[in-house]
Automatic annotation (TrEMBL):
PROSITE patterns: PROKAR_LIPOPROTEIN (PS51257). This is Sugar ABC transporter substrate-binding protein. Gene3D superfamilies: Periplasmic binding protein-like II. Residues 1-24 form the signal peptide. Transmembrane segments: none annotated. Belongs to the bacterial solute-binding protein 1 family. Keywords: Signal, Transport. It comes from Cellulomonas carbonis T26. InterPro entries: Bact_solute-bd_prot1 (IPR050490).
Length: 459
C-alpha cells in the first residue's frame, strides 16, 4: 500500500467500476492480459498506453523523494493508472530529510528503487562516489527525453557521458508574491525593473510598513530558499556567462561579482527596515519555516515575498491565487533592460535497480502521458513541467500556465538552480549552512563567500 495516498473522485471511481464490470465478461487472465498490463483495469481503452510495460502484477517499486504533503498527494495520484493498468504497486515515501538520508541509505546498501533528485550536483556526487549504485536509464526513457525535452535538461541528468535520470517536474523560481488588494488600496504598481522594486520597498517603509518577509528553515535542507535569492541576483547582476562560470567553478565562489550579489541580497533581506515583516528581526529569517515565509501577506503585515511558482501550494486552504485574488505573483524584475533572466529547477528520476517494473515506471515518468496525468491530478495548481508533450490547458491555474509559458519562452534566459548543479558538499551543504549563518550570525557577504569557497572539493 502507498503512504498517505488519496484516491480519485467518486466520478472517476465510478467510471473505473463500469470498466471493471465490462471486463468481467472478457476472457480470463491467461487469455486476456497477454501483451497488456496486469492490473485489474487492464483491457480498457484507458489502459492502452500502458500495454508497452507488460504485466507487472505482484511487483512493487519503492520511490523516495523530498516531495511531501501537500504536494505528495497529487504526485501519488498521478500513479493510479500505472498501478491499475500494470498491476504494479508504487510504494511512496516523502521526507524532509531526503538529501541527507538518501546518501545514508545508499551507503548502507538500502537504496530505494527510484529517487527524485532535485540537485544535478548531488546526482553527480552519487554516481562518482558510489560506483554502480545508480543504474543508467533504459533506452525507452532516453527516447522519451530526446523527444519531449530540450537537450539541456538531458545534460542535467547525464554524468560523465552516461544518461541516468530523466526530468520530472520543473519550476520557475523568479517570482515575488504579493496581495493585489493591498497594492491597489495603497496605489502601488507592480515594479517593472529592479530599481522600481527597491524604490517601492523604500516607499512602503516611508508609509510605515515593512516590505519583505522571508523564511529559510527546512529541516536538514535549511538555507535553500536563501540560495535561490542569491542565484536570482547573480543571474541578474553578473549575467548568464558569469553564472555558468560560477556554477562550474571556473571562477571561485568568492569572486567579487558573487560577493557583490550577496551584498545586493543583504540590501533587502538584512535590511532591518525591510524585514522580517510579521515575524521579527533579521535573525528570524533563519528560523522561520520556508512554508510559512509569505503568510504575513495574508494578515496585511508584509508586502512582498520572493518564492517559486510551487509556493502557491503552501498558502492556507481557501486562499485564492489570482490577479484579483488574495495573493498573486509578479516576475522578479531584471536589472538590465531588455533581458529576462529566469531561475529554474526541477527533479530528476534516478534508479538504483534495473528490474523490469523499475524501468517501466522510470519510463512512464518521462512520458508525455504522465506529464498530462500529473497536470490533471494537480487540481489546486502549483506544478508545471518542461515536457513539450504537456498540454498547458491541462494545468489547473492561470498562474501555472503563466509559469509554463515563461519557462518555454525563447526570449527567456533560463538557468538551472546553481546550488543544485554544484557538488553536493557545496550546493546541498555549505551554501545552505552559510546562508543560515548570513542571517543568524550576521556573517558578512565576504565571510560567507570565503567559507563556501574553502569547502569546494579539490577534484
Amino acid at each position: 500500500m502507498r503512504i498517505n495516498s488519496r484516491r480519485r473522485s467518486a466520478a472517476v471511481a465510478g467510471g473505473l467500476g463500469l470498466v471493471l464490470a465490462l471486463t468481467a465478461c472478457m476472457p480470463g487472465d491467461d487469455e486476456g492480459t497477454e501483451g497488456g498490463g496486469g492490473g485489474e483495469a487492464a483491457g480498457s481503452e484507458e489502459c492502452e498506453p500502458f500495454e508497452q510495460y507488460g504485466d507487472l502484477g505482484g511487483t512493487t517499486v519503492s520511490v523516495y523523494t523530498s516531495i511531501v504533503e501537500p504536494e505528495s498527494v497529487d504526485q501519488e495520484e498521478s500513479y493510479d493508472l500505472f498501478e491499475q493498468c500494470t498491476g504494479a504497486t508504487i510504494q511512496y515515501e516523502g521526507s524532509r530529510e531526503f538529501e541527507a538520508q538518501l546518501l545514508v541509505r545508499i551507503q548502507a546498501g538500502n537504496a530505494p528503487d527510484i529517487a527524485y533528485i532535485p540537485q544535478p550536483g548531488l546526482l553527480q556526487t552519487i554516481v562518482r562516489d558510489n560506483p554502480d549504485a545508480m543504474v543508467p536509464a533504459p533506452d525507452e526513457t532516453e527516447a522519451n527525453v530526446d523527444e519531449f525535452f530540450a537537450p539541456s535538461w538531458k545534460e542535467y541528468g547525464t554524468v560523465d557521458g552516461e544518461f541516468y535520470a530523466a526530468p520530472l517536474g520543473a519550476n520557475m523560481k523568479s517570482f515575488v508574491w504579493y496581495s493585489p488588494q493591498m497594492f491597489a488600496d495603497a496605489g502601488y504598481e507592480i515594479p517593472e525593473t529592479w530599481d522600481d522594486m527597491i524604490a517601492l520597498s523604500d516607499q512602503i517603509v516611508a508609509d510605515g510598513g515593512k516590505p519583505w518577509c522571508a523564511g529559510i528553515e527546512s529541516g536538514d535542507a535549511t538555507g535553500w530558499p536563501a540560495t535561490d535569492f542569491v542565484e536570482d541576483v547573480v543571474l541578474r547582476s553578473a549575467g548568464e556567462d558569469v553564472y555558468d562560470q560560477w556554477v562550474s567553478h571556473e571562477i571561485p565562489f568568492n569572486d567579487p561579482q558573487i560577493v557583490e550579489a550577496l551584498d545586493e541580497v543583504a540590501g533587502i533581506l538584512k535590511n532591518p527596515d525591510y524585514v522580517n515583516a510579521g515575524f521579527g528581526d533579521v535573525t528570524t529569517i533563519a528560523t522561520t519555516p520556508w512554508t510559512d515565509g509569505g503568510f504575513p501577506i495574508l494578515e496585511g503585515e508584509c508586502w512582498m515575498h520572493r518564492a517559486a511558482n510551487f509556493y502557491q501550494n503552501q498558502w492556507p486552504e481557501g486562499t485564492e491565487v489570482a490577479e484579483d485574488g488574495d495573493v498573486f505573483a509578479f516576475y522578479l524584475p531584471s536589472m538590465t533592460e531588455g533581458t529576462q533572466p529566469v531561475l529554474g529547477g526541477g527533479e530528476f528520476v534516478a534508479a538504483f535497480d534495473d528490474r523490469p517494473e523499475v524501468q517501466a515506471f522510470q519510463t512512464y515518468l518521462s512520458s508525455d502521458h504522465w506529464a498530462n496525468e500529473k497536470a490533471k491530478m494537480t487540481e489546486a495548481g502549483g506544478w508545471v513541467s518542461a515536457n513539450s508533450g504537456l498540454d498547458v490547458e491541462n494545468l489547473a491555474t492561470d498562474f501555472d500556465k503563466l509559469s509554463s509559458t515563461i519557462l518555454a519562452s525563447p526570449d527567456a534566459v533560463i538557468r538551472f538552480d546553481a546550488s543544485d548543479l554544484m557538488p553536493g558538499a557545496v550546493g546541498a551543504g555549505t551554501f545552505w549552512t552559510e546562508m543560515v549563518n548570513f542571517f543568524a550570525l550576521d556573517k558578512s557577504s565576504q565571510e560567507v563567500a570565503d567559507a563556501i569557497e574553502a569547502s569546494w572539493p579539490a577534484s
